[in-house]
Amino acid sequence: METKIHDRGNNLLLTIDAPDLRGANLRGANLRGANLRDANLLGANLRDADLRDANLWDANLRDANLWDANLRDANLWDANLWEADLRDADLRGANLVGAALCYADLRGADLRGADLCCSDLRGAHLQGAVLETGESFTDYITTTIPALLTAGGRTLQEVSAAWEYHSWEDCPIAVAFSCQNFSEVPERFKLQARQFIRLFDAGLLPVPQS
């Protein structure tokens, strides 16, 4: 499909859906609301781009530069973001269900309100990021995790003994709340528990210090 990109000063505006944009230089582009479903943006430069409300469902953004990009409320369902540079990106309210974020650089990214259900965060860098539940990654590790894992009456030492296990029966959340399945986690802790399991399974959480 033909690509038409109009130059408006420092703002680029994509006017026609262009699925093959491998390595394209779209720095600062105005792609707000663009339909880029299934687009191949492998290695594309999208630094500072405006991608608010854009449809990037199943898009290939592997190795893409999205540093400081605005992806607020964007649809990134099943998007491939392996090793993407998402430093300081605005991902508030973004749909990241099933997204592959393996080894992505999310330092300083804002994920408040984002939906990361079933996303893969193995090897991702989250230092300085704000998580979907609103706290910084650092505060999450130092404050939220100890509070969450002791909310069911267990000590951190008891829960930490299960840190190497990833089957439900003996994972830290199951031990913390003495539950047989996730439905038994108290409702007020479910959102935090889901987030914990996602980050725990990705190997991003250190053993808490009691």
Question: Would you write up a description of this structure?
Answer:
β1 and β2 form a beta hairpin. The model is unreliable at 1-13 (pLDDT under 50). This protein folds into 2 domains: 1-132, 3 Solenoid (Pectate Lyase C-like); 137-201, no CATH class. The chain has helices at 137-149, 156-160, 172-177, 190-201, and strands spanning 5-8, 11-14, 29-30. With 210 residues, the chain is mostly helical. The chain is elongated and about 55 Å long. Helices cover 17% and strands 5% of the residues. The chain has a 3-stranded mixed β-sheet with strand order 1-2-3, with no helix packed on it. It contains 4 helices and 3 strands, in the order βββαααα.
List keywords for this structure.
4 helices, single chain, 3-stranded mixed beta sheet, mainly alpha, elongated, 2 domains
Q: What string, H for helix and E for strand, traces the elements in order? A: EEEHHHH
The SS-based structural class is: mainly alpha
Distance between the termini: 58 Å
Output the CATH class name of the largest domain: Mainly Beta
Strand order of the largest sheet: 1-2-3
Question: What can be said about this structure in brief?
Answer:
By secondary structure, this protein is mostly helical. It has helices at 137-149, 156-160, 172-177, 190-201; strands spanning 5-8, 11-14, 29-30.
Explain the layout of strands and helices.
Layout: E1 5-8, E2 11-14, E3 29-30, H1 137-149, H2 156-160, H3 172-177, H4 190-201
Parallel strand pairs: 2-3
Antiparallel strand pairs: 1-2
